[in-house]
Amino acid sequence: MSDTSVNIRNIQHFMYCPRRYSLLELNDDWSENYFVIKANLLHEHVHDGTHDFSSSEKLVRSNMTVYNDSPEYDLFGVVDCVEFVRDNFGIKIEGADGTFRVRIIEYKPKAPKGGGFNETDAIQVFAQKICADSIWGCDSEAYLYYSDIRKRVKLPFDTEYQKYDELLKNILCEIRKIREEKAIVPRAKSQKCLGCSMSDVCFPKVKKYNVKDTVMSQKGECGE
């Protein structure tokens, strides 16, 4: 890793809210709520090793570290699950007999209303794909698994690769700009922060000035 390396998980923080990312990156601020804890528990379950197995059809590995150290991306992170599916037209995997196609699966607790997938989830997985493709010299498939509906959603990187590649590069540029300038990003106009675990840290509630409270708090401070 270099000084410019970006952790893939920070891409989603930035996509969710640039201000939130800057508070995490520059101030080391952090706060959890129900939604964050629920997501953490899901990933702990996925990463505990019980999902790893080998069969005649595929090799499944969880909690895999991936990276792409090219100057173009300079990324690293962890993939929830990688499936190496046996395929006569696939690629070789070190330590395994045969050839495989690579399939990335990222687990999320809740699917978006109306179906489909969240773009913030998709760009995170695209960054994982960039790393996987670099490591194994492949064109990996990518899926999101939403646990509340128990369903995999295939991501359209085969048909919209350029779109996501440009988006990822722009995000990486903005992330590195925040690091370099060391300035907390201002809140966007009309931004809704309901559900964000960092809302109280981001905008702490200030108690309104009250004369009576001020007088009572000073009682006894002066000499009698």
Kindly describe this structure.
This protein is an alpha/beta fold and 224 residues long. It has one domain (6-218): Lambda Exonuclease, Chain A (Alpha-Beta Complex). The chain has seven helices and seven strands. The chain has helices at 8-16, 18-27, 34-46, 119-136, 161-181, 199-202, 211-218, and strands at residues 6-7, 53-54, 58-68, 75-92, 99-108, 141-146, 151-154. The model has no long low-confidence stretch (mean pLDDT 83).
Mean pLDDT: 83
Structural class by secondary-structure content: alpha/beta
CATH topology: Lambda Exonuclease, Chain A
Q: Which value, in Å, is the CA radius of gyration?
A: 22 Å
How many structural domains? 1
The fraction of residues in strands falls at 15-25%
The coarse overall form would be elongated
Main β-sheet description: 7 strands, mixed
Number of helices: 7
What is the helix fraction of residues, given as a range? 25-40%
| Level-2 CATH architecture | Alpha-Beta Complex
Distance between the termini: 64 Å
